[in-house]
Structure formats: C-alpha cells, structure tokens
Design brief:
The chain contains two helices and ten strands, in the order ββββββαββββα. It is an alpha+beta fold. 31% of the residues are buried.
C-alpha cells in the first residue's frame, strides 16, 4: 500500500494514503477540497486563517454527511458531488486524529446567517505554491496533505 509519511507544520507525524479508508472505516474528522465556478472555495477560520472547510463528525452522522454539513456551515456552499480521495493520520502530542479528504464541486453558494467559527467563504483562482510562508493560511494547508491532494484532484477530475 502506498503511504506517504511526513511532518506537519507543528512537526507532528502525518501518514497519508489514497487507498480506500486505510486507517479507519469511521474517521472522526473530514476535510473537503471545494471547487466553485473554476475557483477554489475556502473558508477563513477566525484564528487559523484560510483553509478548506471541514471539521468533526458528529454523533449519529456519517463522515460523508459531516463533509456536506461542514461545507455549508463554513462557506454556504452546496455540494454537488462528494468524491472520497484520501485519508490521513496525524500523531499529535496527546492524541491522534484520522481525517477523510474529499473533493467536492459546489453547485451553489448560499448566504448563511452564521459561519460558525469562521468568517465565511473565500474564493481563490490559485492556491499559491508557497502557502507555507503565508501567514494568511491555516497550518492545515502547510504540509504535504494539501500538495498531494491537489495534485490528485488535478489528475483525476
Ligand atoms: P476542539 O475539540 O474543536 O477544540 O478541537 P481540538 O483543538 O482538540 O482539535 P482536533 O481534535 O480537531 O485536533 C487535535 C490536534 O490534531 C490539533 O491541535 C492539531 O495539532 C491536529 N490536527 C487536527 N487537524 C489537523 C489537520 O488537518 N492536519 C494536521 N497536520 N494536524 C491536524
């Protein structure tokens, strides 16, 4: 099984795989690479900065349901198709997390009365190559998960 191992922005170990749910069949976190009208759709998190939307799977919810919900809550985007692309595992200082990565074309951007812990949608023509050096971007965008998943999306969709 091809697995990529690297360090994240905080020097935590990350394992990334494009296999079908290699680390957990029921991961508790999701992350969604969104595209709307030929632009990347991100959210501006109040403290972390720009990132693709995502979050925790709630009780009684599937990972796919959580992905669709988080995109709507944090950007107002209505998911057209939800494609599973990868799963990653982060070994943190005290806990570990497993996250599914999806690619989602967005059919409609709706206005929300709240964007929860974010300032809502941000559309970008291009994700800069040097995201790692940009303070405006979240730490989640600053390891090989982003570059490898974006490459996968560009090659497959
Ligand atoms: P709350 O319970 O919502 O406050 O979340 P939390 O701060 O406990 O964070 P969470 O459980 O989502 O993640 C725990 C830790 O895992 C974070 O502090 C990060 O270090 C790490 N982590 C979470 N998501 C990612 C991610 O997408 N990429 C990387 N590299 N690390 C992550």
């Amino acid at each position: 099984m091809e697995e990529f191992v690297f360090k994240d922005y905080y020097r935590n170990e990350v394992k990334l795989s494009f296999q079908d749910h290699p680390f957990s069949k029921a991961p508790k976190h999701v992350w969604v690479i969104c595209k709307y009208e030929n632009k990347w759709l991100l959210t501006e998190h109040s403290t972390r900065g720009l990132e693709f939307p995502g979050g925790k799977v709630e009780k009684g919810e599937s990972a796919r349901e959580a992905a669709i919900r988080e995109v709507k809550e944090e950007t107002g985007g209505i998911v057209k198709d939800l494609h599973y692309i990868a799963q990653y595992f982060v070994r943190g200082k005290s806990d570990t997390i497993i996250k599914n990565v999806y690619f989602a074309p967005i059919e409609l951007l709706t206005e929300q009365s709240t964007y929860y812990e974010t300032h809502g949608p941000v559309l970008l023509d291009k994700i800069p190559d040097n995201v790692k050096d940009k303070k405006r971007f979240s730490f989640m965008m600053k390891d090989d998960v982003l570059s490898r998943c974006l490459r996968y999306v560009q090659e497959n969709y």
